[in-house]
UniProtKB/TrEMBL annotation:
Pfam families: DcpS, DcpS_C. It comes from the Eukaryota. This is Scavenger mRNA decapping enzyme. InterPro entries: DcpS/DCS2 (IPR008594), HIT-like_sf (IPR036265), Scavenger_mRNA_decap_enz_N (IPR011145). It comes from Lentinula detonsa. One of its GO terms (cellular component) is nucleus. One of its GO terms (molecular function) is RNA 7-methylguanosine cap binding. Belongs to the HIT family. Substrate binds at residues 151, 161, 177, 179, 241-252. The active site is at 250 (nucleophile). One of its GO terms (biological process) is deadenylation-dependent decapping of nuclear-transcribed mRNA.
């Protein structure tokens, strides 16, 4: 089909597929017949149209960023993190839209840990026994300065993102995650943050102490997304990362149909809240005694120590293990 004027007469009837993670929309509709075929003459023809955004060209990265930032609006800013909505188009009509078509995240000043986290890298799978947790992971967590989670303290103390808080109690807070553009329901992404700062990760969860907290987060998350976005039970995927980037306990609350790129939803890394609740109900100390298997990027602070011990473990013959 060479005739662009025919394409301009596209009549949309249905959105077949919305894939925000791939920046892709697939549409069903009709196009007028070009009159070339005897069978279709006069009748509109059924047509599928797929629109996909191209990847950014890295060779123009600096000018691309400057151009985008020129038209961007700050969505939120907490501690060293700022996220903005930007417009790739310069058309006045599009600039008037309340939401841009790109999201820009800024971390400044960025630490080495941030640089390593965002560097593309190979991963290996490691097995963390309770003993390795105590010997390697706990000291690693303790080595982070308090500034690492200052964004959490700012939110919990009521000094940041307060206009966006969806739920707050003496035990936790629910608000939109920095990853969300705040309006695309198909990529809805919220985060529940516990107030108890001694609760660092999945490893610290105990059934007798934390089941009420986890069940309450599950209940309120369903209530909020049901009331506000019309998403019913079964429409949410809630998970806990191990290892997380930030060792202050939080739960990811995401539209179940959204496929997060990268490691965010990988097996081993993301533990379903439902499964965590079931396991803790079965055995209150399960995360104290369990061996946890997860992927670690080459740049991760735990990569070298865990790879070294993993090598030592692999050298022991199975009969000695
Ligand atoms: P994580 O499992 O520790 O690490 O999750 P990840 O970033 O590798 O997923 C922390 C979650 O908190 C992520 O989903 C972040 O996008 C989110 N997050 C991080 N920061 C710094 C902020 C922030 O300042 N505000 C909000 N609302 N969310 C944040």
């Amino acid at each position: 089909m060479q005739d662009l004027s025919l394409l301009q007469s596209f009549e949309l009837s249905e959105i077949l597929s919305e894939e925000p993670d791939r920046c892709r929309l697939t549409l069903l509709g009709t196009l007028p017949s070009s009159g070339n075929t005897s069978t279709s003459e006069g009748h509109p023809l059924r047509a599928i149209i797929r629109i996909e955004k191209n990847a950014f060209a890295s060779e123009h990265a600096a000018s691309l960023f400057k151009d985008l930032i020129h038209k961007a609006k700050v969505m939120e800013s907490t501690d060293i993190y700022t996220w903005l909505s930007g417009w790739t188009s310069s058309k006045a009509s599009e600039l008037k839209q309340p939401h841009g078509d790109v999201k820009i995240n800024v971390i400044c000043p960025a630490t080495d840990v941030h640089v390593r986290k965002y560097t593309k890298q190979e991963i290996i799978l490691v097995q963390e026994t309770p003993e390795l947790y105590r010997r390697i992971v706990e000291p690693y967590i303790a080595s982070f300065p308090p500034e690492r989670t200052r964004w959490v303290t700012e939110i919990l103390a009521g000094r940041a993102e307060q206009g966006k808080v969806l739920y707050s109690s003496s035990a936790y807070i629910i608000l939109p995650d920095m990853k969300w553009d705040l309006h695309t329901t198909s990529s809805l992404y919220l985060v529940a943050i516990a107030r108890d700062h001694t609760l660092r990760s999945l490893r610290d969860l105990r059934g007798d102490e934390h089941l009420d907290l986890l069940k309450s987060i599950r209940q309120e998350a369903y209530r909020i997304v049901g009331d506000k976005w019309g998403i019913g039970r079964g429409g949410l995927r809630m998970w806990i990362h191990y290892q997380p980037s930030y060792y202050h306990f939080h739960v990811h609350i995401v539209n179940v149909n959204y496929e997060l790129p990268g490691m965010g939803m990988a097996v081993g890394q993301a533990h379903l809240l439902e499964d965590v609740i079931a396991l803790l109900a079965f055995n209150s100390n399960v995360y104290e005694v369990m061996t946890l298997t997860y992927g670690l990027g080459q740049q991760h602070g735990l990569y070298k120590p865990m790879k070294t011990v993993q090598g030592e473990i692999d050298e022991i013959s199975p009969s000695q293990r």
